């Protein structure tokens, strides 16, 4: 099963086979013998097109849950999946044998599977069969089983110079869950997920730095576990650094899957206060981690990348190190006026007081360091990252820019974070 689990759902022969099977299954569902059945097929085709166009209209023009439009290819894949299900109805009704009914159900399932695979190919959320089955989420423990603070913890900068891993150090870290109280902000956050590296699980323990890691929008704290592969990524880093790695706190920065509070303190919620006050206060009081700002960084992808830069600029005393992965040049709900109205009642001055580009135009930030990463094929966010990079350089920050393979997808976001681990290790005092 291990070999099957490692099969790629993004490249290689398996995605091609799934697509071919989907085309064959759709062809079988479309096949009809007489004129009356052909009329039924044509009616179903028209219905599928109408439903797909209606879905796109509702999402893009009425509901507008995302700041940027979704690509036509995604709606096409969803439409094909709906077509497979709609075709199965009349086919089941006309089937005379259980064999025919079974083949119809199987064909509809294969069409939906092929359509889903195409959506996954765009987002690169599940790179392997194992990831799609959820087999990568190992090493999860209850919060009350996490070892408490120790009096003889190892300190020093860099930690690699003073730390020696004991013989019984685990080969991998663990993941736990915690509801971080929104004492100061009142923000209704979902439970955070926390990665604790191998060095945290032994005695004596080093006092480790913290990386606050944010998902995109739509998104959830679990996304970096489910899609981002954060545990194997950090376990790999720890394996080459004597078990040392940051404690990774995957905090909630949206409140719900589809909410978009723009990582601001506004009418949409007190997200900045939650991330700048509530999260650090709870982590420092509960876990044995660095208490000083030099041991803290914030990172994220897409919405989370924009949010990371916002937090660094608005709270440099909390997060002097950031990783902006495929972020926007400015927080937005799709257009400027809608954003102003929803956040500050149309007050442009209040928005400019916290907006990244405005802050970097007015102020210098020599104490900040970070990296901007983006997919080389990301035609929307690559220009925005370059724009923010130039502003950051003009504002005196120490920044780097990296393009990684991929577009606006989890493949690029995983690679973006991985490419930033060197900077994080140095800035957070793990390595020289």
UniProtKB/TrEMBL annotation:
It comes from Rhodococcus antarcticus. Pfam families: Esterase. InterPro entries: AB_hydrolase_fold (IPR029058), Esterase-like (IPR000801), Mycobacterial_A85_antigen (IPR050583). Keywords: Hydrolase, Membrane, Transmembrane, Transmembrane helix. GO terms for molecular function: hydrolase activity. This is Alpha/beta hydrolase-fold protein. The chain crosses the membrane at residues 12-31, 38-58, 70-90, 102-123. It comes from the Bacteria.
């Amino acid at each position: 099963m291990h070999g099957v689990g490692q099969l790629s759902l993004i490249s290689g022969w398996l995605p091609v086979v799934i697509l071919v099977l989907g085309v064959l299954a759709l062809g079988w569902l479309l096949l009809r013998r007489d004129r009356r059945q052909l009329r039924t097929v044509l009616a179903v085709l028209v219905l599928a097109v109408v439903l797909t166009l209606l879905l796109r209209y509702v999402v893009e023009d009425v509901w507008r849950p995302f700041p940027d439009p979704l690509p036509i290819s995604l709606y096409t894949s969803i439409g094909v999946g709906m077509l497979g299900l709609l075709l199965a109805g009349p086919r089941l009704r006309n089937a005379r044998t259980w064999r025919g009914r079974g083949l119809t159900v199987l064909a509809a399932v294969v069409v939906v599977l092929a359509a889903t695979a195409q959506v996954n190919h765009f987002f690169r959320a599940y790179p392997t069969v194992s990831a799609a089955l959820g087999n990568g989420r190992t090493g999860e423990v209850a919060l009350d089983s996490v070892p408490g603070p120790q009096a003889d913890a190892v300190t020093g900068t860099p930690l690699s110079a003073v730390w020696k891993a004991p013989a019984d150090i685990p080969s991998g870290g663990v993941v736990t869950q915690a509801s971080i109280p929104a004492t100061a902000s009142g923000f209704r956050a979902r439970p955070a997920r926390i990665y604790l590296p191998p060095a945290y699980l032994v005695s004596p323990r080093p006092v480790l730095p913290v990386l606050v890691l944010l998902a995109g929008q739509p998104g959830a704290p679990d996304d970096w576990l489910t899609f981002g592969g954060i545990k194997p990524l950090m376990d790999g880093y720890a394996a080459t650094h004597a078990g040392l790695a940051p404690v990774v706190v995957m905090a909630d920065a949206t409140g719900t899957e589809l909410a978009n509070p723009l990582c601001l303190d506004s009418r949409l919620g007190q997200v900045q206060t939650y991330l700048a006050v509530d999260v650090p206060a709870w982590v420092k009081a509960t876990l044995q981690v660095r208490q000083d700002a030099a041991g803290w960084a914030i990172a994220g992808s897409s919405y989370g990348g924009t949010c990371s830069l916002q937090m660094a600029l608005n709270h440099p005393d909390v997060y002097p190190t950031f990783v902006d992965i495929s972020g926007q040049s400015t927080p937005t709900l799709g257009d400027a006026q809608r954003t102003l109205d929803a956040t500050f009642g149309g007050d442009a001055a209040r928005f400019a007081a916290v907006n990244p580009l405005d802050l970097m135009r007015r102020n210098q930030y020599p104490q900040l360091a970070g990296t901007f990463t983006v997919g080389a094929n990301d035609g929307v966010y690559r220009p925005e990252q370059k724009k923010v990079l130039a502003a950051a350089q003009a504002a005196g920050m120490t920044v780097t820019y990296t393009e990684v393979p991929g577009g606006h997808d989890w493949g690029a976001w995983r690679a973006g974070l991985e490419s930033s681990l060197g900077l994080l290790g140095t800035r957070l005092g793990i390595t020289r």
